[in-house]
Amino acid sequence: MLIFLVNLYAIRDFLLTFASMKSKLFEEKPETARTSMERWVRIFPDRGDGYHLYDPLQEQPIGRILFDSDGNWIYDGTALNVEEQEEIAGAISGHCKEMDNLIRSLYEKEH
After folding, report:
1. Residues 46-65: pLDDT tens digits?
2. Residues sharing a CB contact under 8 Å with residue 54, sequence separation 6 or more, in sequence order
3. Which of the two residues, 19 and 43, has the higher pLDDT score?
4. I need a surface site. Which of 29, 52, 55, 63 has the fewest CB within 10 A?
5. How far apart are CA 19 and CA 46, in angstroms?
6. What's the confidence (pLDDT) of residue 49?
7. How far is CA 40 from the centre of its chain?
8. Is the pTM of this model over 0.70?
9. Quick one: pLDDT band at residue 74, thresholds 50, 70, 90?
10. Mean pLDDT over residues 89-105, rounded?
11. How many whole angstroms separate alpha carbon 27 and alpha carbon 23?
């Protein structure tokens, strides 16, 4: 009986920890991203539909990425090249749109 109670407390602690960390695992956006050009970018959500971008090594802001309701984005700045812009926007959006299109195209090829 004692072993059962110890296991019950361990399972309860695991479930409580998982429940408290769920938002960090599945819902929150990234805070830092690294581009293929070896640039680190800090991402700060603003109060609207955009994100402020900051270069922590240069210690300066490098623009913003704005999203619309369809998940389309636009970069407002000059520091990032097109590839870096796409990587940062993909990191923020979680690459959902690209994965959906890939899965849809694979499904269409099979049928």
Report:
1. 877 789 999 988 889 999 99
2. 41, 42, 43, 44, 60, 61, 62
3. 43
4. 29
5. 26
6. 74
7. 14
8. no
9. very high
10. 70
11. 5
- In one letter, which amino acid is 20? S
Residue appearing with tokens 């998982």:
18
In terms of Cα–Cα distance, which of 39, 46, 43 is closest to 89? 43
- Among residues 75, 87, 94, 2, the alpha carbon closest in space to that of 38 is found at 87
Residues in the chain: 111
Pair of tokens at residue 81: 């090249």
Q: H or E element: which one contains 42?
A: strand 40-45
Q: What is the SS3 assignment for 7-29? A: HHHHHHHHHHHHHHHHHHHHHCC
Is-contact 59 42, C-beta < 8 A? no
∠ Cα 93 99 105 (to 5°) = 145
Name the band, by pLDDT with cuts 50, 70 and 90, for residue 81: very high
Helix H or strand E segment including 65? strand 60-67
Q: Which two tokens stand for residue 84?
A: 């870096």
Cα–Cα distance measured from residue 13 to residue 25, given in angstroms and rounded to the nearest whole number: 17
